[in-house]
Amino acid sequence: MRLKAGLGAFAAAALGAIGWACAGGPDAPTWTLVKPEFDEYGSAAVLLPSNDTRVNLLLLLADRRGAIVRDPNAKAEGVPLALFPWSVMSEKALPPVEPDYAYDRYYGTRCQSNQAGAAAFIAAVLANAHLDERDRAKLIAARQNLSPEAKEVHQYIGDLNCGAAPLSNVEALSPPAREFAVYLSGARDFYAGEFVRSESEFRELAKASDPWLRETASYMVARTLLTRALEKSMTQWGSLEKDPAKRDAATVSAAGTAFQSYLKDYPDGFYSASARGLMRRVYWLTGNDTALAAEYAQQVDSRENLADAAAAIELVDEIDNKLPLPTLQPQAVRDPILLAVVDLNRMRHPEDESLREYCCGPAITKAEIDGQRAQFGNDSELFDYVRAAEASFVRHQPGEVLQLLPDAARQPRFTYLQFSRQMLRGLALEAAGDRNARGFWLSLFSGAVQPYQREAVELELALHDEKAGRLDLVFAPSSPVAHPIMRAILLEEVAGPDLLRQQASRPGVPQYEREAALYTLLTKEVRRGYYRSFIGDARLVPADAPADAWYSPAIFYSPRWSTTLNRPPLGKYGPKAPLGDYGCPALTATLSQLVAKPASIRGRLCLGEYFRANGFTWYPEGTGTGYYDALHKPGTLGSSRELFPQGRPYSRLEDYKAIMSDRAATADEKALALNRAVRCYAPSHSNDCGGVEVSLAVRRGWFNRLRAQYPQSRWAKDLKYYW
After folding, report:
1. How much of the chain is in helix, strand and coil states, percent to nearest 5?
2. Surface-to-core class of residue 434, CB atoms within 10 Å of its CB (0-12 exposed, 13-18 middle, 19+ buried)
3. Which of 135, 491, 569, 624 is disulfide-compatible with 131, CB 3.0–4.6 A?
4. CA nearest 319: which of 68, 48, 86, 24?
5. Which long-range contacts (CB under 8 A, 24 or more apart) does 309-312 make?
């Protein structure tokens, strides 16, 4: 399950709460729309089981209630989002702001309401005609001195050290002013965590002469009880007790009664909206999922609640945090939007089936969805989509999908549901092997004008062309596949040398793609023994190419961390590249020597020095196998057969082994080979030079041989340890 970091309002109670989104793999997305499991970093603008449930919910709220998916005033900068995590999508939906790292805002403590509370208190004091100026001055000064700040949160929740000194000499105040002083005392105790005393003080004001005091105290009784119940219903790790019986049921019930009493007395009061919202927290704590789902149904049914982007994001996060999918009975969900999100979540197939109850709930069936027709009401478009999604992602019946979702591709603008319906139809055409699938994808571009829609179509078109062996179509000048990461993945993972050379030199190709193609071409040439080709292609390296830039294959791109594309370190293949400690010539000169004489001892040692000095490990193109395979599953972008010939994979270690045993090698050459062979395992005891692994005993033997046979060599003096 995905454990929330907890940014909810009013208290840190949501910390550690179980959300719908489940936990997912690496930070990079899996580049396909057809995924059986939740892909934490790979949601798309299509309603999918693999999406973060919050993404699905926001897309539907955008269609039905006008929620904002991307702020229209935000600058279009960085890499276009094709696949993304919820954190990035929600950030893009909000107006750009400076980050706020205030402790109470980040952790959602009760202290964050202090500013608004102070303003309301001061306004009430100024409005009370029974207070004289001396009373007003003392009360206002006392409230301004009550400046709680969350300085410590024990185990993520509660024990907040955010109180203030009490108002002194209250006997000198008039009776109406003393009532305000009682309120201040209650507020101080509330912020300091003295909830029993705070509740008692607020209850004293039930018959206060000031109407603001009566109403606010009534609300604060309920809020104090709820805050107390929250802290007593959490584990020591800051998550909600899973068993409702272990929660503070009595205090939660009292809080619910107090909120209902407030709403009865003040149905349109200052805090009525807040009280209704906090009643959802009461239902959550008591495990009343039916009432909680009904409350959320009312929220998502209101355009007014979702007009503000921040409010919509907060509501989506709250629903994800609080509505417990694994235990939720489908009949409890009466709103079509929520029901569709729940159904899609249950279409997931976790790799470990034992985790299903935690991430996805019971597997959904066709019969169950058919039985939900009444719950979807008149929303037949959404109901048919859910039916088609089940046929596609659960039973894998593309023919049934095509019957449920008629062709409506040529539109000037798609809603997200309309777009999802046509995208799912396209996936069904692909699964059925329909020869018109490519034309269908092309027909969607004109209507894919809403945020993130075009990129989803580009992905499917790129996948289609890759599967068909037509990378030439992806990289044709008129290709609609413009996304830089998708194009880079195909260049790095699939393209042959001719296409790479073409994109590295073709006029009009963007700099990132041009340099990514050239870096991939040169890397594969030098690692696979195509030295003659490397010498010719190295002439394309720009004079200003960086040699120390951070770079990784495009398949590892994560929108969570990256907003721009870094230039690859092409300078490593230029004349200014580091060459090691052996007095070697430029790389092209070393390779020319190996082209003329492949067995050249010095040439092989210099190539090894070049690899070592530039930090090149033996992993193919600098990737590690396990992490790489997790992203590079069959059917994903870049997973087809590589078109670049394998050649002869280069291994420094094998060259060192051969040279240390070669009678033609000089003593200095053998000493260097022994030194470098031992260092292949430094400092991790893991070989980063490639070739056949050797044991620690063999490495110890090399070390001893170097010290015994070549004691005066600089390479023996340089090596103090073996690994």
Report:
1. 55, 0, 40
2. middle
3. 135
4. 86
5. 309/67, 309/68, 309/71, 309/93, 309/94, 309/95, 310/94, 312/58, 312/61, 312/67, 312/68, 312/93
Collapse the DSSP code of 234 into the 3-class scheme (helix H, G, I; strand E, B; otherwise coil) and give the result.
strand
Strand spans (E) along 87-208: none
**Residue 680 · residue 716 · CB < 8 Å:** no
E runs forming strands in 227-325: none
Question: What is the pLDDT confidence band of residue 13, given thresholds at 50, 70 and 90?
Answer: very low
Read off the DSSP letter of residue 480: S
pLDDT tens for residues 570-598? 999 998 899 999 999 999 999 999 999 99
Question: CA Rg, the chain, in Å?
Answer: 33
Of the pLDDT bands very low, low, confident and very high (cuts 50, 70, 90), residue 361 is confident
Cα distance between residue 216 and residue 18, in whole Å: 32
Report the chain's terminal Cα–Cα distance, integer Å: 40
Q: Is the separation of the CB atoms in 252 and 244 below 8 Å?
A: no
pTM of the model: 0.84
d(CA 530, CA 532): 6
Q: What one-letter code names the amino acid at 574?
A: G
pLDDT value for 169: 61
